[in-house]
């Protein structure tokens, strides 16, 4: 068939090149848009990571402040007893030398005045540190554990450890103070990570929840760390017991008092294999079940 002049196919090379240039321009533009979106995504992730890190730092700070407050509170208690004794000795001496030894009387009065000043400082300190009662609310313990795990995730990864969560579905809501229970979880997780420090054989940290009975939920934090010697087993929950060079020995005693203030129990056992398991119970909120 004879081709007409009008329908002549343009030279293939020219069309291909033009199309190619167009296509390349279009794809370049698309790529620019996509890389912009990717960059935005990465930036957003960075901001979220930073926020999580800030929240974790804040919580650890709150925990440290809590430990310090408890420490100062015990210290204040310890100091106020000898202060009371000093006051009564000075007053007794004043009575003994009543009307005599004016210089000694003056010194005794200084002792009494300074004693009053120190007692007042301690009184104000104790007032300031007075423990607030837990603010109880209905809580989904699994959500609280997930939130806490998110806060700790970077830390866990940096330590080259692995966190596993075995959270029982449809657990009843519990009755608790969110911040305080999170403080307990953070304490147990931090201790577990420290117990696994420098131990490559044990890397796994497992948090498990289950329904213990109709009225109680159980939380277990199981590590593969150094475990606990028989001797230390008896002292763990005692104020100021620590075997860490920079430890305060307050974490577990505070955690136990928080759990007990919630009507639960916190305890520990060594695993049959590596490490130890800390476990605590929390009473179920009478109002009922998750997903009801
Ligand atoms: P601190 O962490 O400041 O020492 P804690 O009260 O939290 O205070 O812990 C007291 C001690 O209990 C620790 O010094 C450590 O010896 C021991 N301990 C706590 N958790 C664990 C654990 N998961 N494995 C082994 N020992 C632990």
Question: In terms of topology, how is this protein built?
Answer:
Blueprint: H1 12-96, H2 102-128, E1 137-139, H3 141-158, E2 162-167, E3 172-176, H4 178-195, E4 204-213, E5 216-222, H5 230-233, H6 251-261, E6 266-270, E7 276-289
Parallel strand pairs: 2-4
Antiparallel strand pairs: 1-3, 3-7, 4-5, 5-7, 6-7
Task: Give a description of the structure.
By secondary structure, this protein is of the alpha+beta class. It folds into two domains: 12-132, Signal transduction histidine kinase, dimerisation/phosphotransfer (DHp) domain (Helix Hairpins, Orthogonal Bundle), CATH 1.10.287.130; 137-283, Histidine kinase-like ATPase, C-terminal domain (Heat Shock Protein 90). It is built from six helices and seven strands. It has helices at 12-96, 102-128, 141-158, 178-195, 230-233, 251-261; strands spanning 137-139, 162-167, 172-176, 204-213, 216-222, 266-270, 276-289. Strands 1, 2, 3, 4, 5, 6 and 7 form a seven-stranded mixed β-sheet that branches. Strand 4 (204-213) and strand 5 (216-222) form a beta hairpin. Helix 3 (141-158) runs parallel beside helix 4. The chain starts with 11 loop residues before the first helix and ends with a strand. Adenosine-5'-diphosphate is lined by residues 187, 191-192, 195, 223, 225-226, 228, 232, 236, 241-244, 247-253, 276.
